[in-house]
User: Fold this.
Amino acid sequence: MIRRGVNKRIHGILFSHVSPEEVRRMSAVKIITADTYDDDGFPIEMGLMDPHMGVIEPGLRCKTCGSKVDECPGHFGHIDLAMPVIHVGFVKDIKRLLQSTCRDCGKVLLTSSQIEEEEDLRHMLEHLGGDLTEFEKLMKKTAKDAVKYTVCPHCNAEQLKITLDKPTTFREEGHKLTPKEVRERLEKIPDDNLMPLGLNPEVSRPEWMILTALPVPPVTVRPSITLDSGDRSEDDLTHKLVDVLRINQRLRENRDSGAPQLIVEDLWELLQYHITTYFDNQTSGIPPARHRSGRPLKTLVQRLKGKEGRFRSNLSGKRVNFSARTVISPDPMLSINEVGIPWHAARELTIPIKVTNFNLEIIKELVLRGPEPVDEFEGYMPGVNYVIREDGRRIKVTDTNSEVVAENVDVGQLIERQMTDGDIVLFNRQPSLHRMSMMAHRIRVMEGKTFRFQLCVCPPYNADFDGDEMNLHVLQSPEAIAEGRILMLVQENILSPRFGGPVIGGIHDYISGSFFLTHKNPLFTKAEASIIMSRVGQVDWPDPVEVDGEEFWSGKDLFSISIPDGLNLTYKSSICQNCDSCKKKDCDIDAYVKIRDGKLLYGTMDEKALGAFKGKILDKTARTMGSDEARKFLEMSTKMAVSAIMIHGFSTSIDDEDIPMDARMQILESLDQATKKVRGYVDAYNDGTLEAMPGRSLAETLEVEAMRVLGKARDDAGKIASKYLGLENSAVVMARSGARGSMLNLSQMAGCIGQQAVRGGRLSRGYQDRTLPHFQKGDLGAAAKGFVKNCYKTGLAPTEYFFHSMGGREGLVDTAVRTSRSGYMQRRLINALEDLKVTHDGSVRNTAGTIIQFKFGEDGVDPSRGIDGKAADIDDIIFQVLGDEDSKKED
Amino acid sequence: MARKDTVNALIRRGVSAKVSEAIANAGFKIGDLRKTPFDLITRYISKEDAEDLLSKIGAKKISMPDVKAAPKKVKESKKKEAAKPKVRRTDLKIPSKIPPLSDGEKKIAERLAKKDYAFPRSIITDLAGYQAKLNMSMKNLDLVIDMVKEQYDLHRIDANESIGIVSAQSIGEPGTQMTMRTFHYAGVAEISVTMGLPRLIEIVDARRIPSTPMMTIYLIGEKRTDGDHAKKIASSIEETQMLDVAAVDTDIDNMRVVVRPDKKKLKAKEITLDSMILALKKERKLKAIIEKEGSNLVIKTEVPSFRKLQQVYEIVKDSMIKGIDGIKKAVIRKQDDEYVIFTEGTNLAKMLDNEHVDPTRTKTNSINETYLVLGIEAARNAVIHEAKSTLDEQGLAVDIRHIMLVADMMTNDGDVKAIGRHGISGRKSSVLARAAFEITSAHLLKAGITGEVDSLDGVAENIIVGQPVTVGTGAVNLVYSPDIVKKKKRD
Assistant:
């Protein structure tokens, strides 16, 4: 039987402390020699590579369990230590135990009433569901109380002060305590005194913190690798264990032969060092153990810890099969739900399909095709890569054996079918900052070697095509496929749970395209309209408009095809200039948008209609009519927009920023005045006649004033320039419609770049009392402190260019710092909140069942379903009830 | 050990152990008992016991009104001393958490009650607003309400939604789009406030003191529209040190310290010589004779000693002669019709104590201070408000519900906890989840000696062991029991 899916669940994991007896009991072999392999390359018995500890070489069998590589999980060995050694990880606990127990009778240094009190508190904490930190606090308090006693309340023995010499030496009033002595003391502590000290006697004894036997991890944990040259290279852990064994051996010999105490102690300390670094090679206070090459060894703690450690790298995230990664490229003709994948990937990636009575014939045919079938037009056809028999044997389908294999396919077997159009896959781009970074797509097998997708899906992935790569995962089980299709499909994620608006939507040319299609309602000839209509497939044509006996189609009528029937919407588009009094439908620039029953009556379609993040039509369609309608609207409108922009023709170049000579003069004039004004402030500052602003020094006041004047100068220059940049200008169309760029960009190109800033102020660093040697020392004027008078078009002066790159550099540094800082913040947020979920009663709870919120967000509304953060769209409801006229508010 | 001492002391005086324990647990000390009203004592022990107790310690019965303040709880007083105002204002009431329904809202609420619909307050308010503007007929209003109900139910969040992760992503994701170094000038050029990503990090870190503490003080009463009034208050709270208004010199020849005030500055700050002397007398460490000498102040040490003189000089130089602790700067700005004071530095407790200040609107950007002065609910609102305004200021739209969840998580068990290893993440019950977050080895070792059990309830743990997680679609199970199905078919 082939078993898939989870049929058992781990209920819990108990952590406990291993005793030396248990170390010996679980050990498959006692390690005594520090040698690993003999001259013939065979592992030495009772050496560190003893085959009792598991196998790493293919073909060999484990001497303990008799299994082969990958079947044998490995077995622990052990080293008997000649002298006891302290476990670094428990040093702090040992210190606490020593300090708070009697050196004579081993009991906690507290009166019985104090112990009772502690117990009461502990039970109360348990009863109230106290968390870890609270128990820790109680324990620390108990320890603190106990340390205060200088005489044992039980046996009246005098207590001496115990200090810890980091990392592992304990002293009692200067006298050094050997680990042996420490162990003897810890042994005295009675079981029922352990709870107040933070130990659970059921799983731990304090003397186990002093090691007398060291477990040796299985060889599978520390495999040696054979280099090309034939040399063996051992794992860091093996190296460390060799050190431990060597010193252990020498220590035993010296001790047994009655060597001087000094030598034994030195060796003992050395053994302590090696075992300490074997556990944690970053213990503070001791030099890290190094490899021959000088690289610090990666020992146990280092293996677990941090980003590349076992936990974060191998347990919380795992490498997977059935995945692919390649460069991405755009394809505007795909549906937003689709992803184009290369032939090569489609052949390699498979979906397991169970053979049943219902699909037996189809599967036989599939297998018969072989591994690389093509149809009569040399197009892609899915084949089968493997047939998995009921006994688990995998049979690779090849051109030569396909007939035989197909013959033998039977119910109950499993085949691994190649990808075919319509299969559901997950598509992902890092960094995966939100759930829309991984969405389900239907695949389309295509020529070429890249993944392709519709451009509206760029914003959620934050993807562009300058070399970005993306990952693809093939869903393997029917449950996963169903979840992918229902919850993760692109169209189901149009609305973002972050703010309830669309994250998927038109960008760049889609927006300028729809602008040209609808702005001031252009007329298209039959030929042009045909091109546009041909893109959207089979739909009814709108009625033509007759001008001078000729038939034309208006842009708004054409665009209306894409708007779903029944949609009503009124808003101001992105090109709106926010006039004082709105002329509504008589708007000069056609910015007042009114849609009734899916017909665009007035207004221009731009970023606010179908753009990602801002598209209102998209937003309302997705919310009220469902994701399917929203997808259709997006696909249709973007396709029409692309044909419209192709008919119109669209390009931009540096002469889009041409402005007449007198405008240039005007800008120069105004900049001159601003510079003079700054000069005036500087003079006033130098004369001491400048009035300081309240709470500011004179120098600060000057800076603030200069920044203000120069900032205004830049804006004025931009204003003058934009007077000559109207909506007939391509660059302006892009900026105003929201396709790309901003008016600020344009004014910097045509007007003036403006003040460069570092750390929010004018540039000041560089040479002594000046930014560059080209200025007078102490010059505080505009040009000397980083004001760039020129625009990109006229070109920057050499000093200006330098200043500009100073500002630019700050931006780069800022981005680099920001990504790491915000990444860490997000990791912490996720970690803190990951366990919260909405329960069936609408409350938000954590895993312990603690109520975090009685109702999510105080009203229980899903943020991706709400309207601008509100629970219901009352505006729209009233419109529906009262109709167009009555529901009008004064706005 | 104060409690123990009290118990022992009482027992020594012949009070029974039970009574002494009860008294000590209530936080009384022997000294307190002499000053405590009888009624308060009888809250903790019986009347007879109390009378007995008082006679044994030789104290008189005191009736309630004799004492102004109840005994402070020993623990709290230490921590919150700074926060507790010394003089309590009498004009303060605890504002109701939910404002009462207006007439329009009441009408809507009545209709809803009739239909047995429960709407959030925000919808009721909105509906009332529309109704006031449009004056719909009852029939239409009912229709509207029904449709709102339908939509509201549709917009409910699904059970088992892994809302924590969604909220965390919704706040974390825009972080990458935020600017790093932004100093926003809270409408006032003189005061700069950290905004942007550093501020957001500061909020979720629950830092004790924000990097730029700041207060917004609203005034109360008619006079709040009066600029001079506001200016007066602003200048009265601004921390002013001696050096800000005067030159301080040591006159070694005569063994004295001379303070030469700048008259202009004195006038601007409305400080007189007398008020200066008063302030100096309040300096605890200063033991000296202060005298006026024309327009100057002369301070002599009690005993002539150069060392003492130097000490006096240091104290006088830095002595605070006016204002409130921590208020570095105060600026007034006109907002709408009234004047608002913005301050650099905060001291909410003392400001709320000022009778010209509107305690219901005045706020600080320090979440910890809000918590200490106004309590955990206020701290929660402060987290929401600060985080939301930080995000809004950057033009990033984030649904307020996500921020609420983070704030509720941070303030869930009564104090403000940070998002991170010292706060929420360090308190998770799961060993594996903690180990996977930070300080891996310490958590594992600790789990070993305490015998912790990881019951695999959370997300991270289940991913580690390779099981479906407990949120979202992983939270539901379908159980197919073939035996039962067969039996049913047979029946």
In short: The CA atoms of residues 180 and 198 of chain B lie 7 Å apart. The longest strand of chain B covers residues 329-335. The first helix of chain B runs from residue 2 to 12. The mean pLDDT of chain B is 80.
